[in-house]
Amino acid sequence: MVLAKSLRNHNTSRKLVALIGPHVAEPTRQVLHKLYDEVVLVDVLDSGDTAHLALMKRPELGVTFTKLHCWTLTQYSKCVFMDADTLVLANIDELFEREELSAAPDPGWPDCFNSGVFVFRPSNDVYGKLLTHCEEKGSFDGGDQGVLNSYFSNWATEDISKHLPFIYNLSSIAIYSYLPAFKQYGRDAKVVHFLGKVKPWNYTYDAKNKSVKGQSQDPSTLHPNYLLQWWELFSTSVLPLLKEEYGSEPFHSGCETGEEAHDTASKVDAPQAPPPPQISSQERKQKWEQGQADYMGMDSFENIERKLDSFLK
């Protein structure tokens, strides 16, 4: 929602499309419809989806298959994909002058591109080839970035025009690791990318004092202005839309208004889909075998990792 508002505020002339999963609650979908020209439901567990068969062989790539659906938006000739944890700081319509696959280098390994922002041409043919690539080779990093870098393997060496300047995908990791360069070039940033486990919406914002709490947990604290920009946009332009849809139903914004920021700072609880029904171990096993693991819930990577850690300890 904040990403959409930031694009609109900087007068993009392009249509905006949101890809969402089936877990997104209906009131939240209504807000997205107000902000985006199209809201497309992506359900890789739907047996009518070609990604469903790929999941049978590579169940660990469920979230990756969701992202690859952007290539099915064939009603458009060219698109710029942007992760939900990005924020636009200036108009970026000039990215449409680039060709597939244009992206900025990743701060962790510059011969790889970061898949948080990239230019592509929707194509069912490419979509099918990407799924086949996933089935046969998987992902070297367990996610979409590994798949895409493996598929578009000539990005690093073939055409420099497909290397986006870093200002189109400025990450908090880069600010932390090369502060002098950020001081030199950071003022020209057009897109900031909140990489890492802690996202802007995991913080708490005090609207009265215009401050973000909990910044010490994340490298982006070296330049908290981006976090403040994110939260100010959320509190002024997105929160009112959420309140319209949710009404008196409680939801968690992580935001404290001036009236709420008292000694026992009241906070509202998060918009969440209802908890999934409990299933037996046998049912869960069958779902795994059918490629229908609950990637966003009990079968998430974090839960599996936690279980493994408990055994190893």
UniProtKB/TrEMBL annotation:
Compartment(s) of residence: Cytoplasm
Gene3D superfamilies listed in its UniProt record: Spore Coat Polysaccharide Biosynthesis Protein SpsA, Chain A
Chain spans, region Disordered: 250-300
Cofactor(s) needed: Mn(2+)
Reaction(s) catalysed (UniProt annotation): [1,4-alpha-D-glucosyl](n)-L-tyrosyl-[glycogenin] + UDP-alpha-D-glucose = [1,4-alpha-D-glucosyl](n+1)-L-tyrosyl-[glycogenin] + UDP + H(+); L-tyrosyl-[glycogenin] + UDP-alpha-D-glucose = alpha-D-glucosyl-L-tyrosyl-[glycogenin] + UDP + H(+)
Coiled-coil regions listed in the entry: none
Family affiliation: Belongs to the glycosyltransferase 8 family. Glycogenin subfamily.
Protein name in UniProt: glycogenin glucosyltransferase
Source organism (scientific name): Coilia grayii
